[in-house]
User: Which sequence fits this backbone?
């Protein structure tokens, strides 16, 4: 269900619950009189779990490693900038939300939402592998657990991090 659909149905009282990313979860709480039933951070080591990845095909990676590395470099730099300039980043995000939806979010709502998330360039590999294992155990990935040992190639990310004198990720 699309974010806007779930929000509309929740606000109209036509659904009782929603699993939404921030800042939409906080918006449902603040504007929709919702309550936080489960903070997903409580389910994961150090409260960290994957929500998005940079993904390229093996063929593209082999043919254009420079493009991928430059994209990763920009991602690391943007992540570092965002974490170092959070008030400005929130204003920029809110301006884009207003442009896309016609309505900006209150600064207090954004502050609360950002209090529940962490922006990182670390793909948090173990959390995706744990999710895959749980999906397999629940019967969503077939009869045999897929081999995910080669799912990640973090070499270019770790090269960028080394260039920037930052800690490698696993």
Assistant:
């Amino acid at each position: 269900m699309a974010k806007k659909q779930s929000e509309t149905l929740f606000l109209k009282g036509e659904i009782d619950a929603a699993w939404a990313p921030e800042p939409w979860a906080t918006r449902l709480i603040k504007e929709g009189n919702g309550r936080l039933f489960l903070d997903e951070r409580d389910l994961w080591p150090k409260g960290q779990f994957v929500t998005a990845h940079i993904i390229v095909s093996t063929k593209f990676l082999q043919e254009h490693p420079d493009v991928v590395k430059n994209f990763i470099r920009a991602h690391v730099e943007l992540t570092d900038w965002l974490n170092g300039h959070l008030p400005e980043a929130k204003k920029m995000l809110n301006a884009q939300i207003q442009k896309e939806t016609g309505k900006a979010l209150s600064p207090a709502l954004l502050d609360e939402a950002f209090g529940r998330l962490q922006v990182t360039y670390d793909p948090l590999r173990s959390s995706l592998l744990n999710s895959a294992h749980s999906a397999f155990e629940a019967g969503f990935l077939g009869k045999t657990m897929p081999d995910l040992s080669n799912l990640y190639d973090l070499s270019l990310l770790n090269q960028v991090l080394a260039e920037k004198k930052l800690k490698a990720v696993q």
